[in-house]
Write a structure and sequence with these properties.
With 248 residues, this protein is of the alpha/beta class. It has one domain: P-loop containing nucleotide triphosphate hydrolases (Rossmann fold). Helix content is 46%, strand content 16%. The protein is built from eleven helices and six strands. It has a six-stranded mixed sheet, sandwiched between helices. 33% of the residues are buried.
Length: 248
């Protein structure tokens, strides 16, 4: 089935970017957005971009709780320190991604021209990727490839501090998380526990989903260093070859 999709699309139908916070996911997406469409398709196997990120969903919860507090009403989603009240809210975020993808399919007539990019982060404290990935819908899993951006916990902390702009807390590229909260939720990551079982695929609900790893400890994404283009091109070329030769 996947070979037929690749032949039909000639682009990644769905690419999932996952990593620790501030690892470079949003910067990579911006880099891809800014490319000439012909260059993006020829060298990165990506068509018109549709991005579905869970950050706007959770930020809306923070905003609504802030308003409710000012109204002297009970907060619905988070406590006073900004932690989710219930662990199932992390599952809800994935289901909201599923919903946004369904809405995209209904709204867009020529979906074969698009590469849908999904983006989120998960730490072991709230179940990790082992909990999150199986919640993705069949429609997503059947077309999914994964790009993991690898940085250490210390690098995630450094970049989170550097990028935070207090004047734009809702910005995709400039939001940040307090150090204590970041450490509590994201210091431990389970991605390599899933990936260590196979060099090419991660098993998600008995589906072999191809993945590759973008190493970014040297931070080629913050200033859009020249190495970003070549490294990303190489990673996506490897991922393209792996999925093109596979059956899911």
């Amino acid at each position: 089935m996947y070979k037929e999709l690749i032949k039909e699309f000639d682009i990644f139908p769905i690419l999932l970017l996952i990593a620790r916070p501030a690892a470079g996911k949003s910067e990579i997406i911006k880099f891809l957005y800014d490319l000439d469409p012909v260059d993006r398709k020829k060298n990165f196997h990506l068509g018109k971009l549709k991005v579905i990120d869970d950050f706007p969903f959770l930020w809306r919860w923070f905003e609504e709780d802030h308003i409710l507090s000012k109204m002297n009403k009970e907060r619905l989603f988070t406590d006073e320190e900004g932690y989710f009240k219930y662990i199932h809210q992390w599952d809800l975020l994935i289901n909201l991604i599923n919903l946004e993808y369904e809405k995209f399919l209904r709204k867009e007539e020529k979906t074969d021209k698009y590469s849908v990019i999904l983006e989120f982060s998960r730490g072991k404290e709230h179940g990790g990727y082992d909990r999150a990935l199986p919640i993705l819908s069949d429609k997503i899993l059947n077309k999914l490839s994964i790009l993991y951006i690898n940085v250490s916990w210390s690098e995630s902390l450094r970049k989170n501090r550097k990028r935070f702009n207090p004047d734009k807390p809702d910005s995709i590229l400039e939001h940040g998380i307090p150090d204590k909260k970041l450490e509590h939720m994201y210091s431990e990551c389970d991605f390599f526990e899933l990936a260590d079982k196979d060099d090419l695929f991660i098993s998600i609900r008995n589906k072999n989903v191809p993945y590759t790893i973008f190493e970014n400890e040297d931070d080629v994404t913050t200033e859009y260093k020249p190495a970003l283009r070549n490294r990303l091109k190489d990673c996506l070329s490897v991922l393209w070859e792996n999925q093109s030769n596979s059956m899911i």
